[in-house]
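Hello K.,

You asked for the raw outputs rather than the summary table, so here they are, unedited. I folded two proteins back to back in the same session to keep the settings identical. This is the first:
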Amino acid sequence: MLGEIAATQPQRWSIIRNVPGHPGFEFFPRWWLDSPLTRWVNTTTHHDLHHNGSFNHNYGLYFTWWDKWM
């Protein structure tokens, strides 16, 4: 039982993180993007910026700092 949970955890995490990033509206409040503790987490806003041509790359699957670092 525990082995099945551990084996499927990466897929469940991927679904939990990707579903809120694709609906076309922001789930998180405005302060989320400005807070020092949460501004590095990729949100719908960051995801949409990548798809509108503002960036030439998208390294930030979960974290925005990858795009700045790379």
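The second followed immediately with the same parameters:
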Amino acid sequence: MYQFSPVTDRVAGMKERYRSTQPSVCLARYKIMTDFYKENPDLMGIMKRAKNFRNICEKLPLLVLDDEVIVGSATATYRGACVYAENSISWLLDEARSDLINTRDADPYTLTPEDRDYLLATGDFWLKECQSAKTDANILDGWFEHSNNGVTMFNRKNQTINPVGHFCTGYRKAIDVGFGAIKAEADAKVRQIEEEGVMGDAIERYNFYRAISIVCDGMITLTKRYAKEVEKLAAAETDPERKKELQTMAEALSWCVEKPCRTFLEAVQTLYLYQIFLTLDACMHGLSFGRVDQYLGKYYEADLAAGRITPEYAQEIMDLFYL
């Protein structure tokens, strides 16, 4: 049985950085999404969500840290937290006005004065546009008579403030097949429905497969953007060992997510980026990674047999993945 090695210096450094950095509110996703929703009021439902996601993937500022091997962030700041105004925002506006979010004893977050002003200036739009506002306006008759009775768990207002919850997405297919093939499957379904005629409830299936294709475009686009960013870092790097590592990372990012993974590094990178995609799409859903050993095991064993990786470096990759 493999015996864990001591953590490397960079793993220890990243662990210390995480522990010593106060979380911050990052408005990168919020700003992109606010502009998109204001500019596309006529888009609805699944197509609006899909195109919004692709737009975020095209415009999100990239964050790559000096010591990283597995890259990807839903925010433009380290230990940043996204704002999911599409669910509910009234509670955050209250904390921003009072500055409670910066000063509270339990779990304070840094919100800069500039971001606070932007949030308060745009928050009214989301007070009417968010899911909670639309749900609250359609509460069943008699609901308030029974809410908060010690039995039911739902609130009187802000019904959709909570995320969807925990579920495990298709990580295995993402790693073994890639989103390029998934996009091709969806595009084939779109063409089939178009040939048969988009009539009746076929429109729901039609938009579903169109949305899948658009979301795949977004995921592939963001991954390619990371590949180019890491290529730039590799070109500027003066340390030969880190330069080689960055070049390997860039090659992996140029291939993975779109295509079937070939190496352990590509498989871990795809697993992590899929989680980032879920985080960019909506608030705190799909949080379970599932059986990581089953997804990654064969790639580790193949790399080990081919001499492409050592157990110690594989452990470091996983240590950095979890951090």
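Strands lie at 24-25, 80-81.

Happy to rerun anything if the numbers look odd on your end.

Regards,
P.
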